[in-house]
Amino acid sequence: MSGLPRASDLGLVGCHVCGMVCRDVEAPDAACPRCGSSLHKRKTASYSRTWALLIAAFIFYIPANVLPIMRTVSVGDVDDNTILSGIIELWVKGSPDLAVIVFTASIVVPVLKFFALSLLLISAQRGSRWAQRQRSKLYRLVEFIGYWSMLDVFVVALLTALVQFGFFSQVEPLPGVVYFGLTVVITMLASMTFDPRLIWDGRDFDD
């Protein structure tokens, strides 16, 4: 794979908005003929921006797990639950399906995104040519699951519907939801600022 020419070697550049492949134009105001977006060989300061957003997301993820994310009222009992205790609460109250959804959306997905983006950043910065095709697919996977990352926030809202079925008499969102929402949004921005083309550059391109 390392011997194959890159798009930049062929005088081509891909639009990062619509994906159209265009002729590389040296003019600083070069724009995509399809969507009008500015053309760049690589996203500006991709490494520093992605690292900054990823670290910020991790910082917000700490209070998202420590602070209560929802309050449940059932048979006179009032419980302020963190993400983990909320998962246990759902399981105990007879909602194992929702417990699995919350665990996947709030624990599994964020941790995997932190790991995946860190791996992509470190390997690209080191100019590694290891598993380039697989790392490119990993980035697409991170992009895909990003669309479903807000599922946990919506689950808190969905829990209010369970009141009608007698699982809980009342459900209220608490500050932990805000921090978790910020974590989700910032990790999505981090994946957007990372330039997957850097994966294929190896040591031949200096960001």
From TrEMBL:
<feature type="transmembrane region" description="Helical">
    <location>
        <begin position="144"/>
        <end position="168"/>
    </location>
</feature>
<keyword id="KW-0997">Cell inner membrane</keyword>
<feature type="transmembrane region" description="Helical">
    <location>
        <begin position="98"/>
        <end position="123"/>
    </location>
</feature>
<keyword id="KW-1133">Transmembrane helix</keyword>
<keyword id="KW-1003">Cell membrane</keyword>
<feature type="transmembrane region" description="Helical">
    <location>
        <begin position="174"/>
        <end position="194"/>
    </location>
</feature>
<protein>
    <submittedName>
        <fullName>Paraquat-inducible membrane protein A</fullName>
    </submittedName>
</protein>
<keyword id="KW-0472">Membrane</keyword>
<keyword id="KW-0812">Transmembrane</keyword>
<dbReference type="InterPro" id="IPR007498">
    <property type="entry name" value="PqiA-like"/>
</dbReference>
<dbReference type="Pfam" id="PF04403">
    <property type="entry name" value="PqiA"/>
</dbReference>
<dbReference type="GO" id="GO:0005886">
    <property type="term" value="C:plasma membrane"/>
</dbReference>
<dbReference type="InterPro" id="IPR051800">
    <property type="entry name" value="PqiA-PqiB_transport"/>
</dbReference>
<feature type="transmembrane region" description="Helical">
    <location>
        <begin position="51"/>
        <end position="70"/>
    </location>
</feature>
